[in-house]
Amino acid sequence: MSTPHKEKIIRVLQLFQTTDEKTPMNAVQISQKLEEEYGMENVHRTSIYDDVRLLQSCGYPIKQAENSHKGWYMEKHLLEDWEIKLMLDSVQQARCVSVHEANEIRNKLLNLTSQRGRSRFSHMIMPLPGNVRGVGQIVRKRKV
To answer: Rounded CA gap, 31 and 44, in Å?
Structure first.
């Protein structure tokens, strides 16, 4: 297996990590994204079918959309959307996290969901006064 082919499989997997049941990608769309985002030219759509079968045989939960012309999607992501929302809410309420740290955590969590999930959660973690500490601010323990 050549190095460009190995890279293509990894890139295809990365593209599937942005999909879900409502936003599948077909071979033509994947081929276009590979060219636009990664500069991979002349990727034939039939090679995408082989890559999908290989990823499925390796255990990745890539499923065919009901309408097969719409392509495939990643059935299950590392975390469910409700779990990501719960963690985003927790970070937003944490008094021991700086704005910078909160934004870093937010970006890491958003990378664990589909593109549709990212757009739904992108507004979250807006620092609330008194909740997220500023840069250099020390969090004091409360007296019980």
So the answer is: 7
Q: In tens digits, what is the pLDDT along the chain, a chain of 144 residues?
A: 667 889 999 999 999 988 989 899 999 999 999 999 999 999 998 999 999 999 999 999 999 999 989 999 999 877 777 888 888 888 888 888 888 888 888 888 887 777 777 777 766 655 555 555 555 554 444 454
Give the residue among 50, 54, 75 at the shortest CA–CA distance from 64: 75
| Secondary structure of residue 25 in the 3-state scheme | strand
Q: Please say whether the beta carbons of 84 and 109 come within 8 A.
A: yes
38-73 burial code (b ≥16 CB/10 A, e <16): eebeebeeebbeebbeebeeeebebeebeeeeebbb
